[in-house]
Amino acid sequence: MAPYVGFDTEHIRDKARKDLLHLLEGVRGKKNLVIERSLAGPVGVIVNVSTLHDYGVDKFFVLENANADTSQRNVVFMARGECARHAQAIADQIKRLQRESQTGHEFHIFWVPRRTLVSDRLLEEAGVLGDVNISELPIYFFPLERDVLSLELDDSFRDLYLFKDTTPAFLMAKALMGIQSKHGLFPRVVGKGDHAKRVAELLTRMRQEIIAGETTDEANQTGLTPSNSIESVVIIDREVDFVTPLLTQLTYEGLIDEVWGIQNNQTDVDSTIVGAPPQPPSQSASTTPNPSLASRKRKIQLDSSDKLYDGLRDTNFAIVGTLLNKVARRLQSDYESRHGSKTTAELKDFVQKLPSYQAEHQSLKIHTGLAEDIMKHTRTDQFSRLLEAQQNLAAGADPSSQHDAIEELIARDTSLAEVLRLLCIYSCVSGGIKSKDFDHFRRLVLEGYGYQHLTTLHNLEKLQLFLSRSSPMANMIPMPGAGPATGTKTNYTYLRKQLRLIVDEVNEHDPDDIAYVYSGYAPLSIRLVQCVLQKQYLFSITRSNVAGAGTVAGSGAQGWRGFDDVVKHARGPAFDDIQKGEDKAVKARALLSGGGDKKTVFVVFVGGITFTEIAALRFIAKKEEGNQLYSPLLFLFV
Amino acid sequence: MEATNPTAGWEKVGEHFYRKTQLYTAVFDQDLDLDNYIVAGALYGGAVAICRDETRIVTYRPNQSAKPSIDIYSCAGKLLKSIAWDKGSVKGLGWSEDEKLLVVSYDGTVRCYYDLQGEFTQFSLGREAEDFGVHSCRFYDHGMVALLTNNTLVSVSSYDEPRPKLLATPPEGEIHSWAIIPPSFTLSRSVEVLLSIGKTVYVVDATDCEDRFLDIGPFTHISTSPNGKFTALYATDGKAHVITSDFQDRLSEYDSRSQITPKYLQWCGNDAVVVAWEDEVNVVGPKSAVTSFVYEGRVHVIADHDGVRLLTNDVCDFVQRVPDVTDEVFRYGTESPASVLLDAVEQLENQSPKADDNIQLIRSNLVEAVDNCVTAAGHEFSVHWQKQLLKAASFGKSVLDIYNSDDFVDMCETLRVLNAVRYYEIGLPLSYEQYQRLTPEGLIQRLINRHEYLLALKVAGYLHLATDRIYVHWASAKVRTGAEDDSTICRMVVEKLAGKPGISFETIARAAYDEGRRRLATELLDHEPRAGRQVPLLLSMEEDEIALDKAIESGDSDLIFFVLLQLKKKLTLASFFRVINTRPAATALVESSAMLEGDNILLKDLYYQDDRRVDGAGVFIREALQQPDARTSGDKLALAAKLLSDSRENNFELIALKEAATLLRTQEALGRDLTDSFKGLSVNETLYKLIHLGYSNKAKRIQSEFKVPEKVAWWIRLRALVAKRDWNEIEEIAKSRKSPIGWEAGNARLAAIFIPKCTNLEPGAVITMYEKCGMRVKAAEEAVKARDADAWVRLLEVVGKNTSEGREIERLGTQVFNK
């Protein structure tokens, strides 16, 4: 048996890179790469453009633009196999190229993450199946950070909740299965919510199918015994807690996301804010068709390779200014230190450090620029109005007191997304809106932003985000004191108290609770994770509000134990499965790897996660580092 | 067995020994004249296919059927299958690495017989081949290249998904001979073809054709070595050349001094070349060293990975280079530790004390000696010497204190398997090295293909391998050929396979279905645990609804889509909807894909038959948005409204739609009157624009028409006027009425004028507003009025005590705050 190693996202990155480059190598000579738009960013996380050039990629095209030209003999398409539209688009382009070009072409398709029957069928119907070489590029997870993996499905929320298309859940299960087959079964699967349950069921099913499959030989046995480098997996369905992502994120990273949006660890910012890029990037001309447009925007890489950013990203924005100031002062004194250096050795030392100072200086400049611009944004009257209304609603203030504020925001032409977020929080927290008010708000939105948003509102209704109390779906919402109807809708009024979602005194400089990420509101989703991982802490802060607490707290209870009642008040089924293997194999495994290693907990969000939630999870991970045997590892799934 | 000397068949070729091992005798029927047949053998001691060589005339025999056939024999000459061939002349006969028989006909039809039992898949080499015809073919481990009569080359790189591709066009001229280098050994990772044209050799791959500039041709034979590094060329003048495959180095040359063109030029391992004429076989090593074997009758040479098999009517021989370890143990006069150890065992059997002397002699190298004996045993074909060597190893390791016996045990197991399959009734003469490359799984597959289920099971059990494939194959064969009725067979199969892990009932069911036993297929399919696997078969069996259910059960949306695609094509829309209606997961997928592809017609029908009025109206609204002019979008909106009009629940939507239509009309009218476009604006935006353009009255009319709340309207008016910088107007309306919204949001400088007009403001807010306007004195005044000492001090600090402003502020404050 191979030596057993812990989980590392770098492995996933390496494997993905190797797979991709291997496939590219298989296409002889220069080639044009036609890539699906939503894949371009994620692939950038794995390999950079210059590496692709090294492997013979000449020009890049976006599949959706349908502008691939005939300059190279080899044309490589790269798209997600799950989506039937792409097969059609590729077939159309192949036909176009064949028509337009005098010379013959070699067509290759790399399906990510798998080749599907449907795509084959569509290519066949289009009559091009015989002309293309098809390969699979099995990348499920894109490693964004050392502790974050993502499927990078942009539309997963829409697919899952509005269209009720469960493909993302299936892909997630597949991806988790990949981890299981490498590292062993998750010994425990805990979760909450319909889709979370679906993922867990799919995992069980896939496992059975593997057992039923061709794995009776010894070699593949690893996948079927519980892992001892993984403690458990916690799967949370986004549906359980819609309010958290609706609130404005208040960490530094969260606000960057709110203001400019972060995609694949990158954000596009006007270069007037952060200054022009230090040197003209040499490849940009070939990658972007319109350089003049590109020059105004600057792409900023936001990941942990930037030490400064790594320190700032998860802090509350309120203290970012102070921190930046501190760094600036330190840097200054570092620079100054050259005056103090007397011997040549000291000077040499300084010169050696100079590049790192310069890099830091550069990043300091960027982040000061960003922070200033965010500040401009947060200082506006509208922003503070919005935030105030949000926080009042989340804290459980009488919603009707916020009517004026909402009305004003609409009249002042605040962006539709913000207004709708506010209305949805209103509806979610108070279990629907009175039908008179509901109609009033709908009217305001339609008049303010156009009647076409009738469909938008209808969709929100379908998602149960924005409901009238009289609507049939709202009836399922358990109102305070309306009896123990549970599990159909998240009851914030109840959970706010039981899980202490509102923490009034937040120390933003040295936070002691996850509530700091929203300046006073602790995300419900993360509280649920704490129900599994940080029972004792949670008991201490909720002061045994929960009936029958205390007894189970200390005894190393697992799963939802101790919080069963509370969890019932959130939407969707809760589950707690234990995956066992043969005893013999478990023992052998334990013997081989030796105990004592830190175990990993996977936290999986189906349907997306916010940066603030990641920050909160990291906060938990840090807290638990010292006293427990595991360090949580996060997954997001956008 | 008689203990012949192990070195009996050894011949020295250059520095190395080559040995000829007789594998089987009495191979073919004496009536079969091998001279008239094309013979092709599979790698790793695989089956041999023969078919009549049509260029030769055969004596007519009345008792023999005249029908052309391709016969597959084992190496021991056991007829495995005779395949009737009806596609005209055979232009290519070859094997893939996994023992699939490929037969290519003149018109480019390729049949891939994948199981030795006559089952085949078929594909064509394409138009070019049909037009010009195939001249000859070359095969490699999982692909092939065909040479057409017009000198074009067609390559197929995979038999699972055959994609015939034309290679670069070679130059004109007669091709004397040709060979290929498999893609795994080329730099380009595409197959390369060596063509002898004129005096030189051309190398052709997918994109290029290069001349290698040789002047020693033309060549009658070209052959590349098993590791792809070397190429052997046989020129018409009887000289054989060995060069590296990149044509950089000429390694050796051998003059056969023969006028007759040889029949075969093949590599024997990577060090020697076999040149074979009718009945003489020469093994040519480096530096022109040569040894020859002479047979009675025609010899066919079958290249294998580590040697060649020689096939005549009487015998099947294997010629290979003597493996190094074997050489070390047996070479005459050797004193290697292993040979001493072997000798020690003989002494032991003779109960001679020399045995111990021998051991003492090699004491320091004993581990090496044991290892070598074990390995040498593996390379040995004779059971006697295998035993002897293993005994030696066993004896040697008994003397050692610590020795890891894993290799020894493995070798014993391996040899047992090898000897079992070498038995003439099975006829798989695997050498140890071939077995390593074939892998135990590959061996099992070969046994299954020969229907040697019992042996396969035993071997699999012995080597701890998966047995499911064997069972499945057995069951598939059973349902294909079993004469019993369906339920008996099903019971039999299920009983036999119950409790065995990993059984794919789907495969068995497919076999049954292919055989036309539909009921049996359905019954068997019920036992398949993997829902996803059942789907394609169910579809082909036209069990559409079950297929859909199974696909949904598997959770794999690809499968669901696949079934839906099929159903949609097959069924009428109404029955299609009937099928999906009861299955929400399927409906959701149909809906979402239609939404994404903009298939509005399907969506409308779907919503209509499902009575989802609001969704249906949504489609019309989206369509309305895409309309180029107001009139057509109005029509669409009317359609949407009509959909909703029947039920009372949707009153709000109905009103909204009517208003939307009104807005469109109004905007169009405004557009005409004011020669400015209002298209696409919302009510609020329209108001804003009107006020901005100075049409306050029109704006008022719209406000009342759409019942815009007063507060909202005020905000819009204010924003518009500020943007227009129409301060007079602002002052005007400020004077005339009391504002419901307060005045906080004005322009900084002018706002100051309005601050006193603000009502309902906290005093603190007034201070900050003045401050924002830069009027600190006024702010201080307010601070004093509000008795807000803190604000006052703050202001003072900001301004500085020594400026004129500062003094003024100080003056204001000191009286009140007594400072």
Q: Which runs of chain B of at least 5 residues are low in confidence (pLDDT < 50)?
A: 740-750, 756-761
> How many helical stretches of chain A?
27
Q: Quaternary status of these chains?
A: heterodimer
What's the end-to-end separation of chain B, in Å?
Answer: 126 Å
Note the total helix count of chain B.
31
Mind describing the biggest β-sheet of chain B? 5 strands, antiparallel
Q: How would a textbook summarize the main sheet of chain A?
A: 7 strands, mixed
End-to-end separation of chain A: 36 Å
What general outline of chain A do the C-alpha atoms trace?
A: globular
Q: How many distinct beta strands of chain B?
A: 29
Q: Strand order of the main beta sheet of chain A, please?
A: 6-7-14-13-9-8-12
Q: Mind explaining what this structure looks like?
A:
The complex is a heterodimer of chains A (638) and B (819). Chain A has 638 residues and is α/β, with parallel strands linked by helices. Chain A has four domains: 9-139, Sec1/Munc18 (SM) protein, domain 1 (Rossmann fold, 3-Layer(aba) Sandwich); 140-241 and 525-543 and 560-637, 3-Layer(aba) Sandwich (Rossmann fold), CATH 3.40.50; 252-271 and 298-379, Sec1/Munc18 (SM) protein, domain 3a (Syntaxin Binding Protein 1, Chain A, domain 2, Alpha-Beta Complex), CATH 3.90.830; 382-474, Serine Threonine Protein Phosphatase 5, Tetratricopeptide repeat (Alpha Horseshoe). In chain A, 49% of the residues lie in helices and 12% in strands. Chain A is built from 27 helices and 14 strands. Chain A has a seven-stranded mixed beta sheet, sandwiched between helices. Chain A has a five-stranded parallel beta sheet with strand order 2-1-3-4-5. In chain A, helix 4 packs parallel to helix 5 (117-126). The longest helix of chain A has 36 residues, at 344-379. Chain A is globular, with a radius of gyration of 26 Å. The relative contact order of chain A is 0.11. The model of chain A is unreliable at 1-5, 215-223, 279-294, 476-486, 546-555 and 627-636 (pLDDT under 50). By secondary structure, chain B is α+β, with helices and mostly antiparallel strands. Chain B is built from 31 helices and 29 strands. In chain B, helix 3 crosses helix 5 (366-379) and helix 10 runs parallel beside helix 12. The longest helix of chain B is centred in the C-terminal third of the chain and has 24 residues, at 651-674. At the A-B interface, helix 5, helix 7, helix 8, helix 18 and helix 20 of A face helix 16, helix 18, helix 20, helix 22 and helix 23 of B.
